[in-house]
């Protein structure tokens, strides 16, 4: 992984256009070719990014760019969509590379992992006609617990928690923002599935159009007296 702190501007060109004016930012270039642009705020959420599969070209500025103070131009191209993320570097303040090796992935606790397995096996709890695509659907920023399709064939991303709070809603929102940029997946609906959901998390989820599924672990295991509710 290459970490660069630089004064830079960023332009996204493709299905949508976006511009980040000149400022000091962290550029995170991963081994899979993905690039994330971070500011010193916003927690884990990048200001902009390009997810794999993509190619990275680091080039010299042309005469006009050089006269404006640009020293390097990074062009990150999404191979499927040909969208481009263009980073114009004016000054590099730090530049480090680290080999992180193979990551073992997120290890969930026993109940949460079992909930995911049970919901995958009982995918109809999401609604009539839903089908499972796969568990642990990998994105550039982490795995979505379950990817499914509804009765109309639309994508459904499910985030599983034992106890869901606002952080869980923010995490699912981040996945949805990324997945809805993929033409093969969008539109993607979000479902927050948990044994308990904090009131603030429910309010935020509903405001963002995310469904909330309250899971009864005992009912899913076949123990009498349980029930599951979808809001």
From TrEMBL:
Entries under Gene3D superfamilies matching the protein:
2.70.180.20, 3.40.1350.10
Q: Where is the Endonuclease NucS N-terminal PH-like domain?
A: 2-104
Keyword Cytoplasm tagged: yes
Q: Would the keyword DNA-binding turn up in this protein's UniProt record?
A: yes
Q: Name one GO molecular function term.
A: endonuclease activity
Primary location recorded for the protein, binned into one broad class? cytoplasm
So what EC number does this one have?
3.1.-.-
Concerning CDD domains, the annotation shows: NucS-like (cd22341)
> Which InterPro entries does this chain map to?
Endonuclease_NucS (IPR002793), NucS_C (IPR048301), NucS_N (IPR048302), NucS_N_sf (IPR049173), tRNA_endonuc-like_dom_sf (IPR011856)
UniProt lists the family membership as follows: Belongs to the NucS endonuclease family.
* HAMAP family hit by this protein: NucS (MF_00722)
The entry's function note states:
Cleaves both 3' and 5' ssDNA extremities of branched DNA structures.
Q: What is this protein called?
A: Endonuclease NucS
Q: What is the lineage of its organism?
A: Bacteria, Bacillati, Actinomycetota, Actinomycetes, Micrococcales
């Amino acid at each position: 992984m290459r970490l660069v702190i630089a004064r830079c501007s960023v332009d996204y060109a493709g299905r949508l256009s976006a511009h980040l004016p000149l400022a000091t930012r962290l550029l995170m270039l991963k081994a899979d070719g993905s690039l994330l642009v971070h500011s010193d705020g916003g927690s884990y959420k990048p200001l902009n990014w390009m997810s794999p599969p993509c190619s990275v070209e680091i080039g010299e500025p042309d005469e006009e760019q050089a006269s404006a103070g640009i020293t390097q131009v990074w062009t990150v191209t999404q191979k499927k969509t040909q969208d481009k993320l263009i980073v114009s570097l004016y000054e590099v303040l730090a530049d480090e590379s680290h080999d992180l090796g193979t990551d073992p992935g997120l290890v969930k606790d026993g109940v949460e992992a079992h909930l995911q397995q049970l919901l995958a096996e009982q995918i109809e709890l999401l609604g009539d006609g839903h089908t499972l695509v796969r568990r642990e659907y990998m994105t550039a920023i982490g795995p979505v617990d379950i990817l499914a399709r509804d009765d109309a064939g639309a994508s459904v991303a499910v985030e599983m928690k034992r106890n869901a709070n606002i952080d869980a809603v923010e995490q699912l929102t981040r996945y949805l923002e990324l997945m809805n940029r993929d033409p093969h997946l969008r539109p993607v609906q979000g479902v927050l599935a948990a044994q308990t959901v904090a009131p603030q998390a429910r309010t935020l989820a509903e405001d963002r159009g995310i469904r909330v599924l309250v899971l009864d672990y005992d009912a899913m295991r076949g123990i009498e007296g349980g029930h599951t509710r979808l809001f």
